[in-house]
UniProtKB/TrEMBL annotation, chain A:
Entry membrane topology: Single-pass membrane protein
Name this protein carries in UniProt: NDUC2 dehydrogenase
Protein family (similarity comment): Belongs to the complex I NDUFC2 subunit family.
Assigned keywords, A-Z: Electron transport, Membrane, Mitochondrion, Mitochondrion inner membrane, Respiratory chain, Transmembrane, Transmembrane helix, Transport
PANTHER family tied to this protein: NADH DEHYDROGENASE [UBIQUINONE] 1 SUBUNIT C2-RELATED, NADH-UBIQUINONE OXIDOREDUCTASE SUBUNIT B14.5B
Keyword set includes Membrane: yes
Organism: Loxia leucoptera
InterPro entries the record matches: NDUC2
Primary gene name: Ndufc2
Gene Ontology biological-process entries: mitochondrial electron transport, NADH to ubiquinone
UniProtKB/TrEMBL annotation, chain B:
Record gene name: Ndufc1
Record protein name field: NADH dehydrogenase [ubiquinone] 1 subunit C1, mitochondrial
Role played: Accessory subunit of the mitochondrial membrane respiratory chain NADH dehydrogenase (Complex I), that is believed not to be involved in catalysis. Complex I functions in the transfer of electrons from NADH to the respiratory chain. The immediate electron acceptor for the enzyme is believed to be ubiquinone.
PANTHER family attached to this UniProt entry: NADH DEHYDROGENASE [UBIQUINONE] 1 SUBUNIT C1, MITOCHONDRIAL (PTHR17097:SF0), NADH-UBIQUINONE OXIDOREDUCTASE KFYI SUBUNIT (PTHR17097)
Family, similarity comment: Belongs to the complex I NDUFC1 subunit family.
Highest taxon, organism lineage: Eukaryota
Native source species: Loxia leucoptera (White-winged crossbill)
GO cellular component: mitochondrial inner membrane; respiratory chain complex I
Lineage start: Eukaryota, Metazoa, Chordata, Craniata, Vertebrata
Length: 92, 80
């Protein structure tokens, strides 16, 4: 299965700051902080490069996941409205 | 009696001597030296982060342009 079919590019792209980006970026940052805690390092002050990298990976993955989720939702909506259009009697 | 004790131990009611299943040999694990920065790791991490942000922002701008292009083409087809 293709992750993002070509027709998904006809949809408006999500903003760079969206739920998925923020949440997964935050989750990535948290996992860097937890890595600090498990290795007995200062939680916030240590491994800033690691915190930035994990947060960046989270944002990156979050953006593409949100794009795929929006494509899936739009596809379902399109099929729903097509069905309603083809069966007007059922929706009087 | 041994079987009963084994069962009780399996139920977690009697402490067993610590097993070696989850211990790590010193020949495999070494304590990390956090005093001296691993500059290669730091450089790679920052470089990868910069590359990922550049890739993400480029992808987003391309997505916006492609969406605008397709919207314009769809509207033009309607008016022609």
């Amino acid at each position: 299965m293709v992750f993002l079919p070509d027709e998904s590019r006809s949809l408006p792209p999500p903003p760079l700051l969206n739920k998925g980006t923020v949440w997964l970026g935050f989750a990535g940052w948290m996992s860097a902080l937890m890595d600090n805690a498990f290795n007995h390092r200062p939680i916030f002050g240590a491994g800033v490069h690691r915190q930035i990298l994990f947060a960046t990976v989270g944002c990156f993955v979050g953006y593409h996941l949100v794009k795929r989720a929006e494509y899936k939702h739009a596809k379902v909506d399109r099929e729903l409205f097509e069905y309603i259009r083809h069966h007007p009697v059922d929706f009087q | 009696m041994a079987a009963g004790l084994r069962a009780v131990r399996r139920w977690g009611l009697v402490a067993a001597p610590p097993s070696l299943a989850f211990s790590r040999s010193a020949s495999v694990v070494s304590t990390a030296n956090n005093a001296q920065p691993n500059w290669l790791g730091v450089g790679l991490a920052f470089g990868t982060s910069a590359a990922l942000w550049a890739l993400l922002i480029k992808q987003h701008n391309e997505d916006v342009m492609e969406y605008e292009r397709r919207k314009a083409r769809a509207q033009c087809r309607q008016c022609s």
